[in-house]
Design brief:
Strand order of the largest sheet: 2-1-4-3
Subcellular location: Cell membrane
Shape: globular
Keywords: Cell membrane, G-protein coupled receptor, Membrane, Receptor, Transducer, Transmembrane, Transmembrane helix
Membrane topology: Multi-pass membrane protein
Main location: membrane
Helix content: over 70%
CATH class: Mainly Alpha
Oligomer: single chain
Protein name: G-protein coupled receptors family 1 profile domain-containing protein
Length: about 350
C-alpha cells in the first residue's frame, strides 16, 4: 500500500513513485547534519542555562516563567536528539545505523517536542498580551500558577495526541525514511496527505495568532506612551500658565524633567519594538518554511531544509526569551562570571 513518510515533519510522497535508490543527495544531508551537530552544544547550553537561572534565582520564579521553563525543557530535549538525527542523515547504507527502537523513540520525541514548543510559544504570547493589556499584575484572573501549570499540561497532551493519532487509528508507524534518511512517522498516503495538510494549517494558525498578539501588545504600548506624553504635556501647560510670572525657573526645570521622561518612554518603545520585531521575525523564519512545506507537499531538497530551519528555533529561543530579558541577563552574568559580580 502506498505510504507517506514524515521525517521530523518533512514529507515523503508515495513510495510507489520512488525507487529504493531514491534519496536526497548526500551533500545536502551532510550540510544539514553538520549544522545540527554544531547547534547541539549551543542549544543544550542555552536551554540548560535558562532552566538553572529560574531554579537558582527567586526573582525569576514568576508565573510567566513557568511557560519559559516548559519551552526550555522541550527545546533541550529536542537538541539532545540532534546527534541521533545526524547519524541517520550521514548513513550511506539505506538504513538507520543504530537500533530501530532508538529511531522510533527519536521520531516520537522530536515530533512531540516540536509541537509542544510551538504551542508554548503561542501560550507565552497570549500570557504576555493578557498581562500587559489587561493589567492583571495586581489581581488573579487567568494569570495564576495552577492555571498556567494546567495550560502546560494541556499543551503536552495536545502535542502527544497529535503525534500518536495515526498510530492509534492504525494508519501509521514510526520508522526510518529512506528518502530523507531520517526517523519519522510513516502513514498511509491519503490519510498522510490530510494529516500533513491539517498540521500545516495548524502551524500557520499558530503563527498568525502569535503575530496578532504581539502586534496588539505593541499597539497597547504605543497608546500608553501617547497617553503619558499627553498627560505630561497637559500638566505642564497648566503649571506654566499658573506660575508664568513667579516660577519661570521652576517651570524650565519641569519642562526638562518632562522631556527626560518622554525620552525615556521613547527609548522603552524602541527597545520593545526591537524585541518584538526579533521575536516575530525569528518565528516567521523558523515556522513559515515548514508550514508551506506541509500545505504544498513535494519531493525535493526543500523538504529536508525546512524542518531543519524549524529545529533551529529550539536553539535561538533561549536567546530571545532569556538574554533579551534584563533579569535573565543579570542572572546569566552571575552564573557565568560570578567573580565579576560585586
Amino acid at each position: 500500500m502506498a505510504a507517506t513518510t514524515i521525517g521530523w515533519m518533512g514529507l515523503e510522497q508515495s513510495l510507489g513513485n520512488l525507487t529504493d535508490s531514491s534519496v536526497i543527495a548526500f551533500h545536502h544531508r551532510a550540510i544539514v547534519a553538520s549544522i545540527l551537530i554544531a547547534l547541539t552544544p549551543i542549544g543544550l547550553f542555552g536551554n540548560a542555562l535558562v532552566i538553572i537561572a529560574v531554579v537558582v534565582a527567586k526573582k525569576l520564579r514568576t508565573i510567566t516563567n513557568i511557560l519559559v521553563i516548559n519551552l526550555a525543557v522541550t527545546d533541550f530535549i529536542t537538541c539532545l536528539c540532534f546527534p541521533f538525527m545526524s547519524a541517520g542523515l550521514l548513513s550511506q547504507t539505506g538504513s538507520y545505523p543504530m537500533h530501530d527502537m532508538i529511531c522510533t523513540t527519536i521520531a516520537g520525541v522530536v515530533l512531540t517536542c516540536v509541537s509542544c514548543s510551538s504551542l508554548t510559544l503561542l501560550a507565552i504570547a497570549f500570557v504576555r498580551w493578557y498581562v500587559i493589556t489587561r493589567s492583571v499584575r495586581g489581581h488573579q484572573g487567568i494569570h495564576t500558577p495552577k492555571k498556567v501549570v494546567a495550560l502546560v499540561v494541556l499543551i503536552w497532551i495536545e502535542s502527544i495526541e497529535l503525534v500518536i493519532l495515526p498510530l492509534v487509528l492504525g494508519k501509521g508507524t514510526f520508522g526510518y525514511s529512506k528518502y530523507h534518511q531520517l526517523c519519522g512517522l510513516t502513514v498511509t498516503n491519503f490519510f498522510g496527505f490530510c494529516y500533513i495538510l491539517l498540521t500545516g494549517i495548524q502551524m500557520a494558525i499558530v503563527l498568525m495568532l502569535m503575530l496578532m498578539l504581539y502586534l496588539l501588545v505593541l499597539r497597547h504600548v504605543l497608546r500608553h506612551r501617547k497617553q503619558i506624553r499627553d498627560k505630561f504635556t497637559t500638566a505642564e501647560d497648566i503649571r506654566s500658565g499658573a506660575t508664568l510670572n513667579h516660577e519661570s525657573q521652576a517651570s524650565s526645570t519641569s519642562r526638562e524633567s518632562r522631556l527626560l521622561k518622554i525620552n525615556a518612554i521613547s527609548k522603552m518603545e524602541v527597545e520593545i519594538t526591537k524585541n518584538l520585531s526579533m521575536v516575530v521575525g525569528v518565528l516567521v523564519l523558523c515556522i513559515l518554511p515548514l508550514s508551506i512545506d506541509f500545505m504544498i507537499p513535494s519531493d525535493n531538497v526543500f523538504t529536508l531544509y525546512a524542518p531543519m530551519i524549524m529545529l533551529t528555533n529550539s536553539v535561538v529561543n533561549p536567546i530571545i526569551y532569556g538574554f533579551k530579558h534584563p533579569i535573565f541577563k543579570e542572572v546569566f552574568k552571575s552564573l557565568l562570571w560570578p567573580s565579576r559580580i560585586a
